[in-house]
Amino acid sequence: MVSQLFGKGGIVSLARARQQKKTIVITGGAGFLGSHLCQRKLNQGHRVVCLDNLQTGNLDNIAPFLAHRDFSFYEHDVIKPYPLPVAVDEIYNLACAASPPKYQADPVHTMMTCVIGALNALDLAREKGARVFQASTSEVYGDPKISPQPEDYLGNVNTFGPRACYDEGKRAAETLFHDYHDRHGTDIRIARIFNTYGPQMDPADGRVVTNFISQALKDDPLTIYGTGDQTRSFCYVDDLLNGIEALMAAEGIAPTPVNIGNPGEFTVLELAERVLRLTQSRSQLSFLEATEDDPKQRKPDIGEAMSKLNWAPKVALEDGLVRTIRYFQSGLGESAPLEVAARS
Ligand code: UDP
Q1: 137 lines ligand 1 (CB under 6 A)
Q2: Cβ–Cβ contacts within 10 Å for residue 261, how many?
Q3: What are the residue ranges spanned by the domains of the chain?
Q4: Closest C-alpha among 128, 121, 124, 165 to residue 27
Q5: 67 and 93 in contact (C-beta within 8 Å)?
């Protein structure tokens, strides 16, 4: 409780702390980003309503919060409406499988999660007069023909490939956010999130960072899809959440999408080399067939986030990898729960 009374500027009054207490809905709150965000919001003294269908989210991620008096969890799929009988100040719409093998496993459901999930978040925001955040994605740029990608780049997206359910679903969600803002004045924020990594990732989610670390720690071959020359920009989870929170807190900004990511660009082979070195692994590289529609390069232009939000990532790839490797080493994620301030 004491920690809730100390603001950045020193001690604040109990009345002011109570006044600032918000009710925050987090869809996908049991997932990687969602559980980190639940932890932050609880530690800031807010009430958190966490919704998750546990398709890729995991109860273990939110187990430390379940007894907290300001935390409630509903096992719920956002493709169904979720009228909540409480006042709501902010909604973070994070619900959707984000790893290619996971979102491609049930593409129709992925598309519905993106589109109907966005619609339901917007309807709740409209009813409650809440500010609503949409977790959009660098995937809206598809296989980009320019680099880095600024927000006004319209993208190069295949409507008909295995990634389309996610890419087009997230694009349609942005459109819905735009139209709710335009027609109903809904208070929206959209971040285009680039590849993010860190503790609390599911070791089995099939993404490159989790695959490489899991494989390296077992001395198994690192699976390189294609040549390994394709690039990605990896943002540490704390940096990403700082950006998202800055976007949600900003007043008087245009309601347009903002790239949030780390502009450091690495080939998949460079990532493999770093993981091997940091884990001191004896793993070999195993070159497999490239996946269909795999973007060849990805690097955010973060000029908008820097000027609008005064935000830039701080954690270098190697530092973030070390923290993530440590998490994986502690029982491959099974024994390293997030911590929240003690329940008062
Ligand atoms: N990748 C790889 N080996 C793996 C997993 C992924 O070479 O075991 C590649 C993948 O083909 C892509 C990049 O790593 O080029 C990033 O893949 P990820 O699934 O992490 O995310 P994406 O950015 O493609 O959504």
Answers
A1: no
A2: 29
A3: 5-200+235-261+298-315
A4: 121
A5: no
**Atom number of ligand 1 nearest to Cα 138:** 23
- HEC string of 18-60 equals HHCCCEEEEECCCCHHHHHHHHHHHHCCCEEEEEECCCCCCHH
Q: What is the mean pLDDT of residues 320-332?
A: 91
- The model carries a pTM of 0.92
Pick left, alpha or beta for residue 113 (phi over 0 → left; psi -120 to 50 → alpha; otherwise beta): alpha
The pLDDT tens digits of the residues spanning 24-51 come to: 999 999 999 999 999 999 999 999 999 9
Angle at 341 between CA 339 and CA 344, to 5 degrees: 140
Q: Say which CATH topology domain 5-200+235-261+298-315 has.
A: Rossmann fold (3.40.50)
pLDDT at res. 331: 72
What does the alpha-carbon distance between residue 199 and residue 331 come to, in Å, rounded to a whole number?
Answer: 12
Beta-sheet pairing, 258-260 with 188-193 = parallel
Q: Please name the residue whose Cα sits nearest to atom 1 of ligand 1.
A: 208
Residue 110 · residue 78 · CB < 8 Å? no
State the DSSP code for 191: E
Whose C-alpha lies nearest to ligand 1, atom 3? 224
Give the tokens for residue 306: 């820097």
Q: Does the annotation mark 166 as catalytic?
A: yes
Cα first-last separation, the chain? 6
Please work out whether the CB of residue 111 comes within 6 Å of at least one atom of ligand 1. Answer: no
Q: Exposed/middle/buried for 252, CB within 10 Å: 0-12, 13-18, 19+?
A: exposed
